[in-house]
Specification:
With 228 residues, this protein is α/β, with parallel strands linked by helices. It has a single domain, classed as Rossmann fold, CATH 3.40.50.720. It is 43% helix and 14% strand. It has a seven-stranded parallel β-sheet with strand order 3-2-1-4-5-6-7, sandwiched between helices. Helix 5 links the parallel strand 5 and strand 6. Helix 1 crosses helix 7. The longest helix has 23 residues. The protein is globular, with a radius of gyration of 17 Å. The chain binds NADP nicotinamide-adenine-dinucleotide phosphate (NAP). NADP nicotinamide-adenine-dinucleotide phosphate binds next to helix 1 and helix 4.
Length: 228
């Protein structure tokens, strides 16, 4: 897989799966622009990623700012990872709306803006999550938003063709905030017996960006979670 002579905008690239994706794209010869809100974390991530990374402040919920990002930077590919995930079933309407603002409307704004600049062989990958198909009370907001993102993926794959739009859906990933106990419990619940590393999900994202024959699909990189 090579990303030589390409630029990828990674919204959410300052942390977790987005950061791992930016790292993998750079290792494969590409340039990245990482966009997120927190200045310190974003700048530190760009510094660590090195000269092939540029950083830009962005709140994905602000449609005009998302549009500006794509007038400022050329892009061959777009990756969107941000989420706002209140837990529990009895959450307020405001919390549920915020979850949709970030992950559904934010991804929609980003794809809409990217459409104006991506080449015909360009691609977009959204992060979803197995809560979309595996209902659990704690992950109600996450589940309904991820289901909306997966549906958005299919519609955009038709509407924005020949640009390809796909999603990657993890179960549990070893990102910030996981305790040893959480890791152990999550690993016990899936057939492969270990939770994903962000690099595993980044691999899946890069595959979906580059495979010329895939669009409108959700790649479930979930350790076999749906089998049990
Ligand atoms: N980690 C898991 O176990 C897991 C499992 C299933 C699905 N997923 C999905 O995978 C995606 C990535 O998860 P992750 O664990 O890598 O998350 P993460 O480490 O929390 O990273 C989220 C990134 O998005 C940025 N972000 C958040 N809100 C934003 C906003 N309004 N505008 C712009 N950027 C924003 C964050 O930076 P700032 O806060 O500075 O903006 C950060 O760079 C999420 O969509 C999540 O639902 C994760």
């Amino acid at each position: 897989m090579t990303f030589t002579d390409t630029q990828t905008i990674v919204i959410g690239g300052s942390s977790g799966i987005g950061y791992a994706t930016a790292e993998q794209i750079i290792d494969s010869g590409g340039d990245v622009v990482i966009a997120a809100r927190d200045d310190d974390r974003r700048q530190e991530a760009a510094n660590t990623l090195g000269p092939n990374a540029t950083e830009h402040p962005l709140d994905i919920t602000v449609r005009a700012d998302v549009k500006s990002l794509f007038t400022e930077f050329d892009a061959d590919y777009l990756v969107c990872t941000p989420a706002h995930i209140p837990t529990g079933f009895d959450i307020s309407e405001a919390q549920l709306r915020k979850a949709f603002d970030v992950k559904f409307f934010g991804y929609y704004y980003a794809a809409e803006a990217a459409r104006d600049v991506l080449p015909e062989d360009g691609a977009i990958v959204f992060l979803s999550g197995e809560s979309s198909v595996d209902p659990q009370p704690d992950y109600f907001a996450s589940g309904v938003v991820n289901a909306a993102v997966e549906c958005l993926t299919r519609y955009l794959a038709v509407e924005y063709a020949p640009v390809r739009i796909s999603a990657v859906s993890p179960k549990i990933v070893d990102t910030v905030g996981m305790t040893a106990e959480m890791r152990e419990q999550a690993a016990e619940d899936i057939p492969i017996g270990q939770i994903a590393d962000p690099a595993d999900i980044a691999d899946a994202v890069c595959f979906m960006l580059q495979n010329p024959n895939v669009t409108g699909e959700v790649l479930r990189s979930n350790g076999g979670a749906r089998l049990v």
